[in-house]
Write a structure and sequence with these properties.
Distance between the termini: 91 Å
Strand content: 15-25%
Number of helices: 10
Radius of gyration: 28 Å
Helix content: 25-40%
Strand order of the largest sheet: 12-13-14-17-18-19-20-21
Number of strands: 21
CATH architecture of the largest domain: Alpha-Beta Barrel
CATH class of the largest domain: Alpha Beta
């Protein structure tokens, strides 16, 4: 016993009896962030996925790292384990589709997602508060700026890609009008024709609302958006404002007042398509009267109930909705190619351009207008000048078919496009998909 008493002090003396230093279990994972979260409950083919990003300049081993969820049902439950490594600047998407995440996450309720070696040892975390709205099918929470900023909701997502707010100026001013019935052709062979359009220099597709609204097209529309996002095609929803199989006047002539239900419908449709489909803009078609605008004028001035103010009001309200998302969402509108025709259509281009980013005059030369090269270009210049007055730009809309509705050759179409390129127009829009052979225009509007 005496020997033991002697040895213990001696051993303590050698080791100085200092406490064992505590190692921070999160230290090895520093620099990993939850960069994007798409919280879905695996309904209708949409999976929950999380993107993590290595923001450091060195590779980080992921072994021992997991995801934990706390919500109304789970309390710190582990829902996924990570393994392998992540190179400097590399991203990794973990999804419920392949059971990388063992459960979907509902964005309809508050939740906290933790990335760490344990639920109470976060390397990074994201808390979805009580006052947040549920995510649309294509929406996600993203760090903005990428990798460093706070996570915020966007109506569109970017799995495996840099998180950025849509920027129209980073795209080419080239667009195509398409119908819902074109969806099956657009997505066939994994979007081969969409990829060809992109390769030839076309960056925007204006998809008619029926492509999203018609339940028969839903699965095709989902695939269409997914492919467009993957290859960098900007999709805009093409709305029909004052027409639905027949003209809809936004003015009640008996009451000399606006029909609030018409404006409410258009606002609701625009909001729904933006939130649910993650489109990058709203294109207004039939944003006019059917040649009878002067019959609906009940006063003059900015606050009067008249056809011009009716058109401008719709443009303004859609612009306010798009700006409210703070996501770079774009407004555009189709215009009749007839200057000084507000008495017929209620369209004053310079006034519309106060709210519309891109005027798209339908300068269709084959058929009823039969424009010469000279008048073709003059109309393009006129709308570009009017758009500039209002603070917008003009992309000239041209046909892809002749007076007999025969699709044009690439050479013939390119001739018309070249004429527009000589004008003050900032870009072109082709009407329509599946008619004619689109030429390569990569050398224009770079």
């Amino acid at each position: 016993m005496k020997l033991i008493r002697i040895l213990i002090p001696a051993l303590c003396g050698l080791a100085a009896c200092d406490p064992v230093p505590q190692v921070d279990p999160t230290e090895a994972f520093k620099g990993l962030v939850i960069n994007e979260v798409a919280a879905h409950e695996n309904s209708d083919g949409f999976d929950t996925w999380v993107e993590i990003l290595n923001t450091t300049d060195k590779s980080i081993a992921l072994d021992g790292l997991s995801f934990f969820i706390t919500d109304s049902y789970f309390k710190g439950q582990k829902i996924g384990d990570l393994s392998g490594s992540l190179a400097a600047g590399e991203r990794k998407v973990i999804s419920s589709s392949d059971r990388g995440l063992k459960t979907g996450i509902s964005s309809a309720d508050p939740f906290t997602l933790v990335l760490g070696p344990a639920a109470d040892k976060p390397v990074d975390s994201f808390e979805r508060g009580e006052d947040a709205k549920p995510l649309g099918a294509f929406a996600s929470y993203q760090r903005l700026p990428d990798g460093t900023g706070a996570l915020r909701k966007l109506t569109y997502s970017s799995p495996g890609r840099e998180n950025v707010v849509f920027d129209l100026s980073k795209t080419r001013p080239t667009a195509v009008w398409a119908w819902g019935s074109h969806l099956s052709d657009l997505i066939s062979d994994n979007g081969a024709k969409m990829r060809e359009m992109k390769d030839k220099g076309y960056d925007h597709i204006l998809m008619n609302y029926a492509g999203f609204h018609n339940k028969n097209y839903r699965q095709q529309a989902i695939k269409f958006i997914q492919i467009a996002d993957e290859i960098g095609l900007a999709v805009h929803v093409w709305l029909q404002c004052f027409y639905d199989g027949g003209w809809i006047s936004p003015i009640d002539d008996d009451k000399k007042a606006y029909k609030e239900e018409v404006y409410e419908r258009i606002r609701n449709e625009a909001t729904d398509y933006l939130e649910e489909w993650g489109v990058k803009g709203v294109h207004l078609d039939y944003i006019r009267f059917g040649g009878t605008a002067s019959k609906h004028n009940w006063g003059v001035g900015e606050n009067a109930v008249n056809s011009v103010n009716a058109v401008n009001r719709c443009c303004r309200e859609i612009r306010e909705i798009c700006d409210g998302f703070d996501e770079g969402l774009v407004t555009s509108a189709a215009l009749m190619p007839e200057p000084n025709s507000s008495s017929a259509y209620g369209q004053k281009p310079a006034e519309m351009a106060k709210y519309i980013h891109i005027l798209m005059p339908m300068i269709y030369r084959y058929g009823s207008y039969n424009f010469s090269d000279k008048s073709f270009k003059e109309r393009s210049d006129y709308y570009a000048e009017q758009a500039k007055i209002g603070g917008g730009v003009s992309w000239s809309g041209i046909q892809t078919y002749d007076a007999a509705t025969h699709g044009m050759t690439a050479e013939a179409m390119r001739k018309d496009i070249d004429l527009m390129a000589e004008t003050k127009a900032s870009g072109i829009v082709l009407f329509r998909y599946q008619l004619g052979t689109f030429p390569d225009i990569n050398d224009l509007w770079n």
